[in-house]
Structures are given as structure tokens and as C-alpha cells.
């Protein structure tokens, strides 16, 4: 993972955008990690992973007796 300070990223943004296509870039501000630049493809991959994780948790919760989405919708209609 590459590191850069915020001023360098501001001044050479295009360069760091290109670098982020190959590897994450940690942006530091006042000596502390502040943000990470990643490629859009990496963002999509991480989002899909997170969606799968939460989907699996929801499926397990439903199987263990929590109300299904349909049941919740029906309860909300009654309110």
C-alpha cells in the first residue's frame, strides 16, 4: 500500500488516481492516516463482499425466528 500526504495528493491528484488503480493509497494528514484512495473496481468488490455478508446474516436471522421482510411489511401496514 502506498502512502502520501494530503498536500501531495492535492497537488498531484491525477498521479495518485492512476496509482490507486494498481494499489490502495493511504492519504495522511498531520501525520495520521486520514483516507484511502482505491480503484472503482476495488470499491465494487468490497461493496459486493459487504452485501453478501449482511445478506447471509439476514438469512440466518430469519431462519432463527426473526420476522421475514413480508411479515414486517404486513405489520407496518397494520400500523
Outline the fold blueprint.
Elements: E1 2-5, H1 6-11, H2 13-22, E2 25-29, E3 32-37, H3 40-63, H4 69-78
Estimate percent helicity.
55-70%
Give average pLDDT, whole number. Answer: 94
Number of DSSP helical runs: 4
> Radius of gyration, Cα only, in angstroms?
21 Å
State which percent range the strand residues make up.
Answer: 15-25%
Distance between the termini: 51 Å
Sheet having the most strands: 3 strands, mixed
Helices and strands, in order, run as: EHHEEHH
- Count of all domains: 2
How many beta-strand runs?
A: 3
Helix/strand-derived category reads alpha+beta
Strand order of the largest sheet: 1-2-3
What best-fitting shape do the alpha-carbon axes yield?
elongated
Uncertain segments of ≥5 residues (pLDDT<50)? none
Keywords:
3-stranded mixed β-sheet; 2 domains; elongated; YefM-like fold; 79 residues; alpha+beta
